[in-house]
Amino acid sequence: QVQLVESGGELVQAGGSLRLSCAASPPASGRTFSSYAMGWFRQAPGKEREFVAAIGWTSTPYYADSVKGRFTISRDNAKNTVYLQMNSLKPEDTAVYYCAARYKSGSYAKPGDYDYWGQGTQVTVSS
Q1: Residue 30 to residues 33, 43, 47, 65: CA-CA distances in angstroms?
Q2: How far apart are CA 102 and CA 79, in angstroms?
Q3: What integer pLDDT is reported at residue 118 of this predicted model?
């Protein structure tokens, strides 16, 4: 079992920046944080949860087209933490942002392929 806790969400003006953090509890015996692929998803009111970014075991990043060039995902395996740096924020980025962890292979962009989820952190971008 892995517990994920997101932080860093808040109200920000359009064009501003935020950095989200996701801290993971120590994984089960025999596994390390670095063995999990980590993802960020978001869900706006009335919409489905959508992929934002992911980072693999080798720290290769993946991004949704809508955030490419503005968001950066990174991980610090020594701190069991993954980050999402969000720049040039737009009102359409407003959503609850969720951190997710996946141990097995699968699609980085499919929510159903992730094993563990955090509670989410609210990001609101005002125009």
Answers
A1: 10, 33, 38, 35
A2: 17
A3: 97
